[in-house]
């Protein structure tokens, strides 16, 4: 199955703010720009899956109108990681000891008391296994950079803990509104 992964548009959040699971909006002009860019590049008639967070859900609903005959399904397993008490705080305001603790154990540490990367990997892996049982040749998935990094890492077929570490240590170079295709 070919998966076309789409990162949501830039959220309406100040630079340097931790906003993982927070349900932040996208400025209308940013949404329009990304929607227009995706209209001609995504296939019609394939299912759309999306994180239920607004920055993905609103784009998915718009693309559903642009790509006739595509089913749209929201799945909470595609949401970004929950950073707990770090959510909506400036990265600079988070204690250096907490950042260092996370850096020392990227897979198991729960930033801000939220979710760890292994927990997120488990839910993204469960979504992928369910999706791959469906009879689609192609699916479009609108989600977040963390989710995309995990889906890319899952393609390697490693044990889940190694997958989580691979995703957590991968360089983050996924632009807002960017697409990545993976074949499973």
Overall description:
The protein is an alpha/beta fold and about 180 residues long. It contains six helices and seven strands. Strand 3, helix 2 and strand 4 form a beta-alpha-beta unit. Helix 4 packs across helix 5, helix 4 crosses helix 6 and helix 5 packs across helix 6. The protein starts with a strand and ends with a strand.
Task: Put the structure in a nutshell.
38% of the residues lie in helices and 15% in strands. With 184 residues, the chain is of the alpha/beta class. Strand 3, helix 2 (54-66) and strand 4 form a beta-alpha-beta unit.
Mean pLDDT: 96
Query: Count of helical segments?
Result: 6
Distance between the termini: 5 Å
Instruction: Report the radius of gyration as a whole number of Å.
Output: 16 Å
Fraction of residues in helix: 25-40%
Overall structural class, as computed from helix and strand content, comes to alpha/beta
Strand segment tally: 7
How are strands sequenced across the largest beta sheet? 4-3-6-1-7
The H-and-E topology, N to C, reads as EEHEHEEHHEHHE
Oligomeric assembly: single chain
Query: What fraction of the residues are assigned to beta strands by DSSP?
Result: 5-15%
The global form is globular
Largest sheet: 5 strands, mixed
Question: Could you list the spans in which at least 5 consecutive residues all have pLDDT below 50?
Answer: none
């Amino acid at each position: 199955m070919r998966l076309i992964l789409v990162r949501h548009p830039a959220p309406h959040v100040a630079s340097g703010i931790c906003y993982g699971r927070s349900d932040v909006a996208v400025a209308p002009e940013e949404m329009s720009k990304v929607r227009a860019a995706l209209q001609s590049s995504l296939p019609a008639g394939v299912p759309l899956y999306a994180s239920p967070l607004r920055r993905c859900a609103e784009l998915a609903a718009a693309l559903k109108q642009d790509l006739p005959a595509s089913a749209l399904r929201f799945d909470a397993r595609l949401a970004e990681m929950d950073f707990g008490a770090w959510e909506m705080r400036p990265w600079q305001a988070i204690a250096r000891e907490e950042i260092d603790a996370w850096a020392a154990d990227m897979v198991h540490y729960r930033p801000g008391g939220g979710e760890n990367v292994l927990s997120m990997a488990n839910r993204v892996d469960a979504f992928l296994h369910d999706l791959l049982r469906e009879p689609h040749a192609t699916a479009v998935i609108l989600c977040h950079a963390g989710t995309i990094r995990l889906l890319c890492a899952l393609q390697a077929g490693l044990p889940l803990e190694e997958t989580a570490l691979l995703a957590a240590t991968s360089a983050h170079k996924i632009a807002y509104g960017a697409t990545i295709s993976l074949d499973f």
